[in-house]
Amino acid sequence: MRLRVSPLLTALVLASALPAFAGEPSPERGTVKPALSDVLRAPRPAGGEYFGLYLVDKKVGWFFTDLAQVPGKNEVRAVADFVFKAVVGNNTAERRHHEERIYDSRPGGKLLSFLIKDEGDGGNQVLTGKATPSGFVVKRHRPGQTDDTFTLPVVEETVEDADQLRVALLRGKEVSGVSLDGTDLGNYKMTTTPLAEERRVVNGVSVLLRKATIVSEKEKVPMQAVVAADGAVVEMSYGSAMIGRAEPKSVAERLDRVEIFGLTRLVLPAPPPPLAQKVPGEWTLVVTGFPDRFHRPTDRQSYKDLGGGKSQVTIRAAAPDPAKLVKRGAKSPPETAEYLKSSILVESDNPAIVAKAKEIAGGETDSYAAAKKVVAWVGRTMKKDYGASADRATDVLRTLRGDCTEHSLLSISLLRALGIPARRVDGVVYVQNEDGVPALYWHEWVEAWVGTWTQLDPTFGQPVADATHLTLGEESSAEIMPLLGELKVVAAR
């Protein structure tokens, strides 16, 4: 699984602005300047801020944020730059993400336009969006492909959402709003809650720091921010694994050489027994660093609290009950509707995706049989290549290269095109690498609703994901970020 820099960081555009006050009288002709948002009243360092991005104490990237009033206009510009770089397999993966957002500078001012640029791992693209009365018109440019234009629904993001953190601290109370995600262009609720102040020793001096948590409904994982009295952000963190630390530009841009697989793997006390790698099969693990919120009982996984910080997880893999299987197009439960939707990433309504899905499925009317055909085709057709990642299903279909992320993305796109609800699953899977150390590695596979939720692994060509697949989250690596560096396997049987 390709570890992604959290889109939540994009929403925390935290930097310089011109000092301003609402309703300030103008010396010219006695007029009154338009009221300005609290986002411009909050103290912040001039010139923007740089942060080093650390994963399990290794620097894998950096990001820069800036926010300021546009000179001579009643507008605010928010800028964010992200770089992520790591060794993945035999390749070096590097991703660059740049955003610029323009807002009306008045209180509650709406998002007016945006520019998003992606380069490197995940594919290259430029997205430009402009607000209209009926929604956002977005133009997308991808090298070597025809430009396309589409319309998003009305975006409710306001200028205060550009820096909820400082607005919440300025007001001394919780602030909620909506943020347009820079990756999938979805609208997600975001809430920032101030916390109690604390004292820390910084450079030998005891200072009073303000704290807050920021939660996006997309990722559901609290990010904690620590802010100095002058408004400078000192640190932002997802648990102990992913931390952004304020640093000078020259320091922030100096990255470690990090082999991501070895850094994040979970070493096992012993290889899994043969039964764990068969279907039907079963495997039981005893783990630490596994909070209760990740204990989500399903037909595949059950949990037991052993006390002393230990949890027992039993994984059972079996083919779906034939009596529960449904035909393609059969009515599915309301909660599966979300997993039939197309998006800028999944693109399941794209004509090329629809045509390929129909070709693969042929005349198959059984949902599970069709799903097996899809994952088998993806597994045998795609070249496993950690240096050819793509974030959009049509790009994966065009190149037919990538890691487990691309295998899963193309699979769910094809499945949804066939009317089969499908979602990506994040977790770990057993692999014995070249060094011979038995371990669980971060991985992504798929789950399809075929009358019941059933897990399949297109990367490994498994029509039923075997019991060495431990499910930890869904769709977004941000949800499982707090487990990195904390989750440990202490026994396996």
Outline of the structure:
This protein has 493 residues and is mainly β. The chain contains nine helices and 25 strands.
Radius of gyration: 24 Å
User: Could you tell me the number of beta strands?
Assistant: 25
Head-to-tail CA distance between termini: 25 Å
Beta content: 35-45%
Main beta sheet strand tally, sense and closure? 14 strands, antiparallel
Helicity range:
10-25%
Mean pLDDT: 89
Query: Which blocks of ≥5 consecutive residues have pLDDT under 50?
Result: 2-32
Q: Given the structure, what is the number of helices?
A: 9
Number of domains: 2
Q: What spatial form do the alpha-carbon principal axes imply?
A: globular
What structural category do the secondary elements indicate?
mainly beta
In spatial order, strands of the major sheet run 8-7-6-5-4-3-2-1-14-13-12-11-10-9
Task: Walk me through the structure.
It is a single chain. Residues 2-32 have low confidence and may be disordered. α5 (351-361) crosses α8 and α7 (393-399) crosses α8 (404-417). The radius of gyration is 24 Å and the shape is globular. It is built from nine helices and 25 strands. The chain has a 14-stranded antiparallel β-sheet. The protein has 493 residues and is mostly beta strands. It has two domains: 7-252, no CATH class; 282-492, Roll (C8orf32 fold), CATH 3.10.620.30. The two termini are 25 Å apart.
